[in-house]
Please model this.
Amino acid sequence: MKKKDVLNLIRYHTEHNDAAFRNEAYNIAKEFDHAGDSQLAAYIIALLSDANTLVPQSAGSDIKSEFLEKKTVIKTSLPLPETIADDIQGVLNAIERNIGIHKFLFHGPAGTGKTESVKQISSIMQRELYVVNFNSVIDSRLGQTAKNITKLFAEINSFTHPDQTVVLFDEIDALALDRIDSHDIREMGRATSALLRQMDELSEQIILFATTNLFSKFDKAFIRRFDAVIDFGRYTRKDLIDVATSIMNDYAKRFSFIGKKHPSFQKDSFQGGATTLPR
Model:
């Protein structure tokens, strides 16, 4: 444990910044674990878990927030090209191993499965999904959007059981436009700067996803805040046929009026099958 860790703990305690205090303590526990003192690390985590029970919130389901909306996720099969499905499996493995990789950016054209992948990951991991409401975050008043971003992350960091939640910034381009883009207004530049600062302070216990269709317009400093970036634009023609066939097969099971003689089920179209996320 470094001197700065002790100083940070004291500072956060005196500032009554419980979210930052717990995040720093989690990081210290992680350092002890990496150093081979797993018993002390487990003891610190146990103390933090006991402390969390005193906070009047559940994993997040009872949070009343103008910035976050809880989404109910229905388990479905999700056909994806094998290359993308492999990357999603890597995301699941990283989360399960709890190795500090917890911020993910999905980019690509609309309709390629970015948002749905986040939903299904939440379902597979049995975590509650919260989606950021940008209509509440973005404000026309000078400086208010940046203040709202700070409030939003304070709520996210205060989840009592962060290991049971997933936070999604769907179409985050609303906040993360390139600060040097000539088309970007000064207010949104301030908002992006606030977003960068808050992402640096995000608890490692929180799993955060963001999606975008405008990756090329992103601030490069913002992209570096993510632990992994996955391109959903890697569909070949065969991938498109396989995905379409898989979707049609799914519909055929649910709707009797779709027969096997439908053109999408003909042999020349039905070649292989798209890789799907586990249910």
Notes: The beta strands are 68-71, 79-80, 103-107, 128-132, 165-169, 207-212, 228-231, 275-276. Residues 51-58 have pLDDT under 50 and may be disordered. The longest strand covers residues 207-212.
